[in-house]
Design brief:
- The chain has about 725 residues and is of the alpha/beta class.
- It is built from 22 helices and 25 strands.
- It has a 6-stranded parallel sheet with strand order 3-2-6-7-1-8, with helices on both faces. A 5-stranded parallel sheet has the order 11-10-9-12-13, with helices on both faces. It has a 5-stranded antiparallel sheet with strand order 15-16-14-18-17.
- α12 packs across α13, α14 crosses α19 and α17 runs antiparallel to α18.
- The longest helix is centred in the C-terminal third of the chain and has 39 residues.
């Protein structure tokens, strides 16, 4: 008998639904005739978990005594003797009681796999060995139960079981995770929103890296030699000094040690637009970077260390290489702490290499702190680009139009060196890839401002010289433009069989950028909410600011989920859900505005079958959308009915008739999420307004249709 196959349900924290997902998988396989047993499942007193296990054969556990107490563990021998096709084994990271067959449960599962038994198991991201230090920094809790990464990477399939921090904390409050005496301590310590957000990001990125590994294997198996995105990226900081050539070569050697690694050279332009770095020297260094198969970039900023780290984060760099003269060259650039030590201190988990250089120092202007309006402009630009992508505008002209309008420019162009042979649209030795506006620049010498993207592509603008803040905003948007440009190039030159994999890579790049933006929004969001809660005045300023930053956070979250849904990484856990409880949670999430809703649910309405977390999110988004678009004094209404074997839920918008489900981002994402739960979402317009209709499978057998009653305002 061959080796068994391992499937892992991975979660960011306890309570997200991993065990239920594992049991649901067992029930699905059992229904198909597969011989499935429960090797070990711990319900922890959760009624839903116990209910999900009903009907599955349970292999009796082994009883052990340790220090006068009795414990039960999985009986490995009993499972091996039973020889099922599939064994469900909960909590892969568990440490067995002394006296057990193996020290760790993952060692137990290795024996089952070696015997040809397929294993379905669960794991939280904090138990991966490689992330132990990261998790301790985030949560201040040292994880004693850890699993070697190699064990999980051997899995044939790793599925992410995801839940927003807000939804998980609600589950905690409702007593669905821990007993009442543990809830308050959990919410104020390990289950803080910041902790959960960071752990969720770790889980998303770990799964994204697994996708990249699979794509790399695909390239090797199919002999695809064209460069695709990899996870190892080395960024080298250039100042325009003579010794930068040695630094470039050193960084290139570091990149060459890892097959497929990328080299990115970056020069920080002063925030005031001035620099004393020689243009000719930078041009020579750029040619050297390209000669060693790297790419040249520029970014703006006053604090060089922070600008470098922001660039590294935006480009998903894994290592940063800086020069550090033995004569104190870096220390001469700023007062006090040098750039290298400061970058290393602020780098978090980015590896920073300080390379000793002997060349004499070069004078450099001191810099001053950046004002908050620069950061707000960047957030606005990135949010606008994200919204454009969410609406389906993946083409370059649409993205350039967003930038042109944001910065009040006459025209924007993307230029790249023209090919050797004559080509339509070429102007001299440059080719216009895409443009927006009248009389768009056709050569790097034409514009008022230009910055350089990857592979020599130039982003050129006309209309007025950009300020330092606007230039920084333009640079911050380069990641989105570069991803769109790469997609444009590949769709022109690669076969259709490779396009899907390329789009997966673009989704990963977009997801990582969105996650970085989501993290960047967390600090100002928390600060604004705290300030509003403790400040009696300035509410007319704080309230709109809080609404806008919440809207931006929701937008980024929607973009992440849309990419994950289309990549097949958004898992759904379908089970009967109570609409009364769910709509009560929606009203709570909406805040004071939610109490204006009029809701009517029939007494005999069956439960729909859905993913509770996803459906709550969809209904919250749709009702918030309805409240924003409904006229004063005429709030939206919600009613429901049972029709055959379906539950129909309707959200009625009075006097709104202009929404289109194919272009509106809220309706578009909601429809795709509902379809992922085997449901449908339609939008109907009529003289009285607009109705969003959701149908979902019913948990009850088909019966007579229940007509909806009159809407009533919730208590």
């Amino acid at each position: 008998m061959g080796q068994g196959r391992l499937r892992v349900y991975l979660g960011a924290a306890p309570g997200v639904g991993k065990t239920c997902a594992m049991l649901a998988e067992g029930q699905r396989r059992r229904a198909r005739g597969t011989d499935v047993v429960i090797g070990f499942v711990e319900p922890h007193g959760r009624r839903l978990t116990a209910a999900m296990a009903e009907g599955l054969e349970i292999v009796p556990r082994r009883t052990l005594t340790h220090r006068g107490s009795t414990f039960t563990e999985m009986d490995v021998d009993a499972v091996l003797n039973r020889r099922p096709q599939v064994a469900l084994v909960d909590e892969l990271a568990h440490t067995n009681v002394p006296g057990s067959r193996n020290e760790k449960r993952w060692q137990d599962t290795d024996e089952l796999l070696a015997a040809g038994i397929d294993v379905v198991t669960t794991l939280n991201i904090q138990h991966l060995e490689s992330l132990a230090d990261v998790v301790e920094q985030i949560t201040t809790v040292r994880q004693r139960e850890r699993v070697p990464d190699a064990v999980v990477r051997r899995a044939e399939q790793v599925e992410l079981v995801d839940m927003t921090p807000q939804a998980l904390r609600r589950r905690m409050v409702h007593g669905n995770v821990y007993p009442p005496d543990r809830i308050e301590a959990a919410l104020t310590h390990y289950f803080r929103p910041g902790n959960l957000t960071a752990l969720r990001e770790l889980a998303l990125l770990w799964v994204a890296d697994r996708v990249e590994e699979g794509l790399q294997q695909y390239r090797e198996e199919h002999g695809i030699a064209a460069p695709w995105e990899t996870t190892e990226r080395i960024a080298v900081a250039l100042t325009g000094d003579e010794e930068d050539e040695a630094l470039i070569r050193r960084a290139a050697r570091i990149a060459q040690r890892t097959p497929g690694a990328e080299l990115l050279a970056v020069h920080v332009v002063a925030d005031d637009g001035l620099t004393d770095a020689g243009a000719s020297r930078l041009a020579e260094q750029r040619r050297l970077v390209e000669a060693v198969n790297g790419s040249y970039h520029e970014t703006a900023g006053t604090d060089i260390s922070e600008a470098l780290l922001q660039f590294a984060q935006a480009h998903n760099a894994t290592q940063l290489v800086l020069g550090a003269s033995r004569r104190g060259r870096w220390l001469s650039l700023v007062e006090g702490e040098g750039i290298g030590p400061r970058a290393a201190r602020l780098a978090g988990h980015l590896d920073v290499h300080l390379v000793a250089l002997d060349s004499p120092p070069r004078a450099r202007r001191p810099h001053h702190p950046r004002h908050g309006d620069d950061a707000r402009a960047e957030n606005a630009a990135l949010s606008a680009l994200a919204l454009s992508i969410l609406r389906g505008h993946h083409d370059l002209p649409a993205l350039l139009e967003v930038l042109r309008e944001l910065l009040a420019l006459d025209a924007v162009s993307l230029l790249e060196p023209a090919p050797q042979e004559p080509r339509s649209g070429a102007a001299g030795d440059w080719f216009v890839v895409a443009s927006s506006g009248e009389a768009a620049p056709e050569h790097p010498g034409d514009p008022d401002t230009h910055i350089t993207l990857d592979n020599g592509t130039v982003l050129a603008t006309t209309g007025h010289p950009l300020s330092a803040a606007d230039r920084s905003t333009l640079t911050a948007c380069a990641t989105h433009l570069q991803a769109a440009l790469d997609h444009h190039r590949r769709t022109r030159t690669t076969p259709q069989s490779q396009t899907t994999s390329t789009e997966d890579l673009l989704r990963i790049a977009r997801m990582r950028t969105s996650l970085a933006l989501q993290q960047a929004l967390e600090a100002p969001r928390t600060a604004l909410l705290t300030l509003r809660a403790h400040t009696a005045g300035y509410r007319e300023l704080l309230d709109p600011a809080c609404r806008e930053i919440e809207h931006a956070a929701h937008l980024v979250s929607d973009l992440i989920d849309l990419d994950r849904l289309r990549a097949g990484a958004l898992d759904t856990h379908l089970r009967p859900v109570d609409l009364d409880d769910m709509l009560a949670a929606v009203v709570d999430d909406l805040g004071p505005g939610g109490h204006d809703l009029a809701i009517a649910l029939p007494d005999n309405l069956p439960d729909p079958i859905a993913d509770a977390a996803l459906l709550t999110r969809v209904l919250t988004r749709l009702t918030a959308y309805a409240l924003r678009r409904s006229p004063p004094g005429r709030p939206p209404t919600i009613d429901a009915a049972a029709v055959a074997d379906r539950v129909v839920l309707r959200i009625n918008h009075p006097a709104v008739t202009d929404a289109q489900q194919d272009t509106d981002p809220v309706l578009r994402l909601s429809r795709e999420l509902i379809e992922a739960m085997s449901g449908t979402l339609t939008v109907n317009t009529q003289p009285g307004g607009l109705t969003v209709t959701i149908t979902l499978p019913s948990a009850a057998p088909a019966g007579p249709t229940a007509a909806p009653g009159p809407p009533q305002a919730p208590a």
